[in-house]
Amino acid sequence: MSEKAGSQSGGSSEASGVTVSDIQELIRRKEEIEAQIKANYEVLESQKGIGMNEPLVDCEGYPRADVDLYQVRTARHNIVCLQNDHKAVMKQVEDALHQLHARDKEKQARDLAEAHREALSRDESQGLSPAQAFAKVNSVSPGSPASIAGLQVDDEILEFGSVNTQNFQSLQNIGSVVQHSEGKPLNVTVMRRGEKHQLRLVPTRWAGKGLLGCNIIPLQR
After folding, report:
1. What is the pLDDT of residues 6-49, one digit of tens each?
2. What is the 3-state secondary structure (H, E, C) of the chain?
3. Alpha carbon distance 67, 77 (integer Å)
C-alpha cells in the first residue's frame, strides 16, 4: 500500500499539468482509502472490541486466546499503512488545488491585460486618446469642501464638471463652473499616482475663502 501511494505522489507532483479530473481522481482515491481504514477498524471491533493499542498478551505474558491474533495484527498494520497513504493523498489534493487556483489567477490576469490592450487598440483605431490632465491641485485646506470630497495635493485633474482637456482654456473655466454650481454636486475625475479616481465635490460656503478651499494651477503639456 505504501509503495502505491508513493508512486502516486511522484506522478501528481508534475509542475503545472494539474486538471480538475486529476483532483477528482485524488479525491476518489482518498475516499477509497478511508473506506479501507473503516473496514480494518471493523475487523478490530469484531475481535472483542479491540483497538490499536490494547495488549495482545494476557497478564501472564501469553498470547491472548480470546482473539484472532493474526487478524488483529494484520488489521493494525493495514491501518497504519493506510493512514500514511491517506496523509500523502491529502497533501497531493492540497498541492493540486493550489496549482489549479494559481493557474486560474494567472489566466484571469492575462485575460484582463489582453482586454485592456484591445480597448486601447480600439480607442486608437477610432482616433480616441486617453484623457489628459489639464490642471493640478497644489493645496487643500483642512475641513474645506475640497478636503471633504477627497481631493489631495498633487491630484491631476482630468475632468472638473463640464471642463475637460478638450475645452479647458484657463482657470476661469473652472471658476465659472464653481460659481454656477454652488450647493450642487460636481463630478471631478483626477489622476493620483497613476490611478483614476472619481470624486463628488459640492462647492459650498465654509469657514475659509471661496467655495472649494483648494488651489488649482494649470498644467503645461
Report:
1. 444 444 334 457 888 888 999 999 999 999 999 998 988 888 77
2. CHHHHHHHHHHHCCCCCCCHHHHHHHHHHHHHHHHHHHHHHHHHHHCCCCCCCCCCECCCCCECCCCCHHHHHHHHHHHHHHHHHHHHHHHHHHHHHHHHHHHHHHHHHHHHHHHHHHHHHHHHHCCCCCCCCCEEEEEECCCCHHHHHCCCCCCEEEEECCEECCCCCCHHHHHHHHHCCCCCCEEEEEEECCEEEEEEECCCCCCCCCCCCEEEEECCC
3. 16
Q: How many domains does the chain have?
A: 2
Instruction: Give just the sign of the alpha carbon dihedral 13, 14, 18, 23.
Output: negative
Residue 214 CA to residue 192 CA, distance in Å, equals 16
Q: How far apart are CA 50 and CA 170, in angstroms?
A: 92
For cell 493512514, the residue is 83
In this structure, what CATH number is given to the domain that contains residue 149? 2.30.42.10
Whole-prediction pTM value? 0.43
Q: Are 213 and 147 in contact (CB under 8 A)?
A: yes
In the listed set 91, 107, 126, which residue is the last one of a domain according to the structure? 126
- For residue 43, the enclosing domain spans 20-126
Tens of pLDDT, residue by residue over 132-144, are 899 999 999 999 9
Domain boundary among 91, 126, 161: 126
pLDDT band with cut points at 50, 70 and 90 for residue 5: very low
Q: Cell 471491533 identifies what position?
A: 45
